[in-house]
Structures are given as C-alpha cells and as structure tokens.
Amino acid sequence: MEIKKGIAVSPGISIAKSLIIDAEDYRIPQRSISPSQRMIEVQRIRNAFRAAVEELTGLQAGEDAIKRREIMDIFAVHLRFLRDRSLRKRITDYIQSESVTAEYAVATILRDIASHFARVKDAYISERAADIYDVEKRLLRQLLGYKREDIEHLTEQVVIVARQLSPTQAAALNTEFVKGLATDAGGRTSHTAIVARSLGIPAVVALEDLTEIAGGGDTVIIDGNRGIVIVNPDTETIEQYRQYSQEFAALEHRLYSLKDKPAVTRDGVEISLLGNIEFPDEVKLVLDKGGEGIGLYRTEFLYLNSSSEPTEDDHYQAYAETLKSFKDRPVIIRTMDLGADKYTQSQRLAPEPNPFLGLRSIRFCLQNLTMFKTQLRAILRASVLGKLKLMFPLITNVQELMQAKMILRDVMEDLDDESISYDRQIEVGIMIETPSAALTASTLARDADFFSIGTNDLTQYTLAVDRGNELVSTLYSPVDPAVLRLMRTVIQDAHRAQVDTAVCGEMASEAEYIMLILGMGVRTLSLAPPMIPEIKQIIRSVTIAQCNKVARKVLSMNSERQISAYLRDATRKIIPEAF
Ligand code: PEP
Ligand code: MG
Q1: What pTM value is reported for the model?
Q2: Does residue 146 surpass a pLDDT of 50?
C-alpha cells in the first residue's frame, strides 16, 4: 500500500481500478526497460512500421479513399513519413540510448518532431505537425494493439491516473465510467481541476510521481476531500474508506434538502448563487443543486470538445439550450477564453513560449475577428430567448473593452441590416482577472454593466504563480494580502459606480472564504454546481454583521498564513460540519 498526498481539487471518494493515461489519451503501459530488452523493443518498432505501412496501403486502395482525392493525398504524406528510414533510426536509437519501451520512444520522438514543425512560420510546414500526430497514433495503435484503450471508450469503472490531463481530455471524460482522477501535475485552479469539479468527479492533483508508482489495473482510492491517493490499499483501509464514503454521501444528502431554500443570511440578506458551466448539459446539475442561474459559461469548451471550429449555429444551439432552462434568470455567457492552456485546433500546433502572458482570451479574439464575430452573432441571436448577459474575459485596459464593444456594435449593425432581432439592452460586463484591471476598476466601471472577479487568474497574475504548476502551488492563494487588497479596490470602486460585482473564481466555492467575500461586500457568487449546496448552507448559517467583522479583521492582517488560519477557525466555529 502506498499513500500519496496531493492537492484536493474535487470532493468525494472513489475506489476503483486505475487506468494510466499518457498524453493524447493513449495508455503507455510502461516507460523503462532493462538493457537486455532493448532489441525486442527495436524489433517491435520495425514490425509496427511495417504493419502501419501495410494498413495505410490497404486503406489507400479502398473504395472510399479512391473517391476522395484529398484523403489519398494525406495518406501519401503519412506513407512518406512511415517509409523514412531516418525517422525509424531516430526512434530505435532512442530506445537503445535511453532503455525505454517502443511506445514511449514513438510518442516522445514524434511529438518532438511535431512541435518543431509547428513552430515553423510557413503555414504549409506548420500544418504538417497534425500529420505527424496522426502517424504517431497509427504507430501506437500497432504497438498497443488490443491493449490500447482510450478514455472515450471505457467499458468498466476506473479511476484515471495521468501525468497531466489537458482541459480537452478532461472535457471528454465519461462520468459513467470515470469515477476519479489523479494527476502528477496540476494546481487547484487548473482547468482540468475545474472540469473535474464541474463533472463531480473526485480528483486530486500535484501528486508528483504517482504515475510511476501506480500500475494499470491497481486498486486506487482517491480521496478528493483530503487530497490523498492510496495505491493498492489493504483491506482495512478499503473498509475505512467505504464507511467514510457512506458518511460523505449522507452529508451530501442532507445538504440536498437545501435545494429549494433561499440563499439568504440569518439577518435576511439575499445572496445570488449561480453556477459555472462549461457545457450546456451541466444546466441540469445547476438546477438540481439549487443554482439560480449561470454566472459563468466558459464557452471556449465548445472549441475544446470538437475537432473542428464550431459554426455560428453550433454556438447558437449551445446558448439556446442553456437559456431555455432559465427563462427570466440570468445566464452570463463569457466570450471564448482561448489560449494559455485552452487551445483552438490551430493554436495547439503552434505553442507560444509564454502562453499565459500571450495571445490569450480577449486578445486572441481581437486578433481573430471572424471567429469573434461568429460567436458574438450567435450570442446576440440567442439574447432574445432569456436573460442573457455577455461578459468579456481578461480585460486588461479600457482600450480593449472599447474595442470589444465596438466589434459588438458592428455585429449588432450587421444583424440590423439582416432584420435579425436581438436584445438591444443586453448587459455587457467584464471579468476582473488582472492587477491592471483591478487597479483601473473605477475607469472600467464607466463602460461595463457589471464586474465578475476571476480570482483564479487574478491570483495567478498578482502573485506571479502559475495556477496549474504543482511546483509553486504552495505560493498560490487567493487570500494573499496582495490579492485581497486588489479585490477590495475593485469592490469599492464598483460600489461607488453602482456596478454589480460577483466573484466567479474557485474561491467562491471554498467554505472558508465565503464569510470574507460576503464581508467585503459581494452579493453574487458563481461556482462549480456540485459545491452550491455547501456554500448555501454557509450563507444560511451566518449574519452579514459576522462577515463584516471577519473581513475587517482579515484586511488588517499582513500574512497569508495568518489569514488562512483565521478564516478556517472562524468558519469552523460557525459550521463545524463544513470541515
Ligand atoms: C478565473 O480566472 O477566476 C475564472 C473564473 O476564469 P477561468 O478559471 O476560466 O480562467
Ligand atoms: Mg480566468
């Protein structure tokens, strides 16, 4: 039995057999081999290349392919790669020098080549990166044969163990079979963690070397409440966890009874509790958990979940489906927040050196107007179906906001010309996610109908700590005095300008931060749907006077540690069961 401690990112307990997933959904069963096995692996490479060539030649001769010239051309390119002796030599040399399996060598070498292709400025060459990835998959299929499994085609319950899972991979998880998630890498607010939480899959990240400890098929316990993963637990531990899991389910059931009760403090102040979603079908969960609307729809997942760019109609259908469940209640659609760790199909092939500071989010939209306008048209068309509000992410200065609004006006004019109706009074808000936006909130407030504080990014950019990097995760805290001072500035400036301010980062789903947020004057929270009942219980257990006192005290403190400890104590006193 091996016990590993990481960061708990999605609550719940799961016990199941593990499925080890390497990048690109392929399960690479083993990395290292003993030197005596190297020749066997080299032979496996030869066989895999031969079989892949035969497979492709067969496909090329197939009836369908003959009808479709483009496919023939693609296959011809792939065949050239597969017949390239220097490529095969590079892979076999790697096996010899590093003593690794054939699968590992193929994945490493081909991904390395693909990323070099992708960086070439010439579009024709950079697009070849996609072909290399295809060749890699074809070879892996040959090598892994029937052992190959991908996370979209599971037939039994598993917990996924991976070095890292991209938001795209996480978005494709099938909750019927995936019962837990544990990764070596990642942070509390990495997008993979956010998706796991939204899907209600217990998850622990930042486990460092779990993939080296756990083997495929091992029994694994994932304790998403305490951030613990146990590989091959003994029977006593399994029994303890089964009991703990039942207690947790009973607590969840008790919280469920709050579903139709209002989120109102003991002294009668109403708080608006909204859900964060990535996909329209999460609306059911928001309603089931007692959410009153959508405070953040992360629309970029429309791109991540598909192999091609979504059309205007794809956007429209997704928004219409979301709105139909909420009628007169708010649905805030955030325009696509692509870049950083969430790529479009073409971005994925040309990684930036510093993507979180690069062409991300609204910056990407302002440089890709056709794509941006397509989404804005769909949002405006859907705006007549309910109380839709539009929100721009990662605004860092007023010019960006003015530019984004100008483009919105252009799209409105286009719709006018085509006599297509939309809500002319649509509210347009912004996310406050950067120190620059926080410090200029009073200026931005003149042109924004509402603010939503994205504490995940605000923390990352204020403290210069990558939100998804486990190596610096102890430095990442939304209650660092620097972050709190910026939040206070935003809330006060917004209040003066009579602009509503919500908090929609993961901070709003953490029990110990709720009194502080309310005490700072925020009355709208948007959070992962599974967390809504617990947060509602806290709201219903406190008075605003208590919260104000907590906030005053916290804002007078200078150390994150002191603040965290104080908040935990203050919350525990009021609702011990939250812990
Ligand atoms: C945030 O940054 O806090 C936020 C809510 O946006 P995202 O997590 O999608 O970056
Ligand atoms: Mg953000």
Answers
A1: 0.77
A2: no
